[in-house]
Amino acid sequence: MDLSTINPALLVASLMISATPILLAALGETIVEKSGVLNLGVEGMMIIGAVVGLFSSIHFSNPYLGFVFAAIFASIFSGIFGIMVLYFKSNQVATGLGLTLVGLGLSSLIGEFLGSQKTELLEPVYFPFLSDLKFIGPMFFNHDILLYFSILLTLILYIFLKFSRAGMILRAVGENHDAAHALGYNVQLVRMLAIMFGGACSGLGGAYISLVRVPQWTDGLTAGTGWIALAIVVFSNWNASKVILGAYLFGGITVLQLNLQAAGVKIPVEVLSMSPYLVTICVLVFISVNGKNSSPGSLGKTFHI
Amino acid sequence: MLSFEKRPQPSKFWIIFTPILAVILTLIAGAILFSTLGKPPLESLKIIFWDPLFHPNYAAYSRPQLLIKAGPLILIAIGLSFGFKAGVWNIGAEGQYIIGAVIGGGVALAFYPYESIIVFPLAVLFGAIGGFLWAMIPVVLRIYFKTNEILVSLMLVYVAESILISVSQGLLRNPEGMGFPGSRNLNQYASSANNELITGTGLHWGVIFALISVIFAYFIFQKHTLGYQVKLTGEAPKAAKFAGVNPNLIVFFCLGISGTLAGLAGIFEVTGQAGQITSSFNSGYGFTAIIVAFLGRLHPVGILLAALLMALTYIGGELAQFQLQLPAASIQLFQGMLLFFLLAADILVNYRVSRKRS
To answer: Do the domain assignments include residue B101?
Structure first.
């Protein structure tokens, strides 16, 4: 065991990278759940984003276009879920699961055409002066644009939910859809937009895995990240500012366990690799014991006019 | 515009007919999918749904496979149907299935090479216990801490997969396996082999247990108070509470049965078809069973039929992979689409659809 091989600057930098997909997906799901819809298909939308992102990035030799297409396709894909739960009034839990199963199947079908092709990588953003700083530079100021976008998005969504009129309507629809309907808001439309926004975010998150974290295709690439994102939403108590905290916490655990594995710590590899999931369970338990539960009032309920 | 008018009672006709409609829609969508992949659509469908049963060359091998593959799906889906009826969402059956196989298989391996008639029953018993205990984790957390069972049971699938990889490379690895991962072959160890009881039918102990579970579930839902309480909790939780139904008992009962049956499916699979405990023996039955449960309308007999159909897509899918080089993932997608169409068609059960002039 040699812990000195772990470079703290690199550790923090890779923590941020591994947290970003969770952050993006969890932010999207926060908006969806705030509108009163429980979409358990995050994993499916992420993996669609991952495969579409990689495919279009290779096809156009442009990773940025990869992200654009990932967001568009995952959003359309989540639209199917939206139509089913909103207009066909299907059960949200079952439909979300179905979305995940279809997503996994569709992605590995598309993935077969990808083989082990590589994609071009994103350029790191250069901040004058800051990026050149010793230690701090490589830690925080040497990342790609998507990572900074995810942090900015956290801020935007926080402000959107808390202070904007549209955010207030979204919350009203999620808290009590009958009251919101009586006030003249279009419940179905608000929810549909929220679902498609959530899909786009999950797609970006998935594409971040396939284009930045593991820039290559493997079957089941997302490996439960979508489910962890769902747990983060519960952890954050449906608050965008806490989502980032949760995502970075889990990103940290994932990176730390990988580093410990590489450093050959005397903890069995299996225990380390199951640790992110075990910690998720522990955190969920902790939250359900201590946290005040402020889940949206109409979460998971079907709206009937 | 179409308008949906809620029916006072769910339509009896559509309850039975929506799964059939969903299958038809999936066949059409499947044909489109296959032709997009550049395969002859009708030929593909024939290979998947007709050839495994009636092809002169393949049917002799494929037909017994139908029961072998349907067995675990029935066991797991019957278990899930209890929870899904009560609104208790166990989506971690895959984990309970894996742990059942690991614990039960481990017990059988502990006896190796001692031959005795008691080894197989003991392995089955411990398989059931393994699945049950694994399902008790979300139960305890839900009852004592009100933790969401959906996320916990699913997280435990990933934990179970880690355990499976670990034991198949370490604790349970075949010492004579030339260093390859995977346990001794339980199907070739006479005392633990779960072989066909009648040659050429595919009928093994797992299938017998699956049929028993169907009858058991039918009895519980039709004749027993507990079955009534499960249904009541799902349909009207408040009414159930006033009627004195203990919600914790329902959670315990539903997940307990679900875990036990999934564990049984695991041990029968690993002593039968799969033979070895390897990191990939599980083949995702725990997730496919979710589709089976819904396709069977959470009704025991429906689940039996749905599992046979799903088993057919597995077998036919393998055949199509072999004959037409159809990608394996397209069958997975096909199964997923079936669930989607079913859920969408479900609106016909509870709503009357009419055309509204605006």
So the answer is: yes
Question: Which domain range does residue B85 map to?
Answer: 70-307
Residue A80 has a CB neighbour count (10 Å cut-off) of 18
CA–CA distance, B5 with B15 (Å, rounded to integer)? 17
DSSP tally for chain A: helices H, then strands E? 12, 0
In-domain check, residue A126: no
Residue B171 at interface with chain A, using a CB cutoff of 8 Å: no
Instruction: Let me know: does B163 contact A270? Beta carbons within 8 Å.
Output: yes
Q: How far apart are CA A62 and CA A45, in angstroms?
A: 21
CB atoms within 10 A of CB A101: 26
- The DSSP-derived string for A229-267 is HHHHHHHTTS-HHHHHHHHHHHHHHHHHHHHHHHHT-SS
The closest of A28, A47, A17 to A225, measured between CA atoms, is A47
The reply to whether A160 touches chain B by the CB within 8 Å rule is no
Nearest residue of A to residue B286, measured between CA atoms: A101
As given in the structure block, the two tokens for residue A101 are 């199963």
For A112, the closest chain B residue by CA position comes to B327
Residue A260 lies in a domain: yes
Question: Taking CB atoms and an 8 Å limit, are B156 and A281 in contact across chains?
Answer: yes
Instruction: Tell whether A296 is covered by a domain.
Output: no
Indicate the SS3 state at residue B277.
Answer: coil
Q: Does B147 touch chain A (CB under 8 A)?
A: yes
Instruction: Give the bridge partners for B191, in sequence order.
Output: none
pLDDT digits (tens, 9 = 90+) for A198-212: 999 999 999 998 888
Residue numbers of the domain that contains A243: 3-116+145-290
Radius of gyration of chain A (CA): 19
The single-letter DSSP state of residue B326 is: -
List, in sequence order, the alpha helices (H) in chain B: 12-36, 41-49, 51-54, 59-86, 93-111, 119-145, 149-169, 205-223, 225-235, 237-242, 247-271, 285-295, 300-324, 328-345, 347-350
Give the separation between CA B50 and CA B54, rounded to whole angstroms: 6
* Predicted confidence (pLDDT) per residue in A176-225, tens digit: 888 888 888 888 899 999 999 999 999 999 999 888 877 778 877 878 88
Tally of domains in chain B:
1
Residues of B in contact with A84 (CB under 8 A): 340, 343-344
Residue pLDDT tens, chain B, 358 long: 567 777 778 778 888 888 888 888 888 988 888 888 888 888 888 888 888 888 777 777 778 888 888 999 999 999 999 998 888 888 889 999 999 999 998 898 888 787 778 888 888 999 999 999 999 999 999 898 888 888 899 889 989 988 998 888 878 777 777 777 777 777 777 777 777 777 777 788 888 898 999 999 999 888 888 888 888 888 888 888 888 888 888 889 999 999 999 999 999 988 887 778 888 887 788 888 988 998 888 899 989 998 998 888 888 888 888 888 888 788 888 888 888 888 888 878 878 877 765 5
Number of domains chain A is built from: 1
Look up the ipTM and state it.
0.83
**Is residue B328 one of the residues assigned to a domain?**
no
State the residue for tokens 């975010």. Answer: A201
Reading the block at residue B288, the tokens are 């496919």
In terms of CA atoms, which chain B residue is nearest residue A107?
B329
Task: Report residue B28: phi and psi, to 5°.
Answer: -65, -50
Give pLDDT < 50 ranges for chain A: none
What burial class does residue B71 get, using C-beta atoms within 10 Å of its C-beta: 0-12 exposed, 13-18 middle, 19+ buried?
Answer: buried
In a domain, B151, yes or no: yes
CATH code of the domain containing A280:
1.10.3470
**Which of B99, B332, B353, B358 to mutate to test binding with chain A, by most A CBs within 10 Å of its CB?**
B332
Q: What is the pLDDT of residue A305?
A: 65
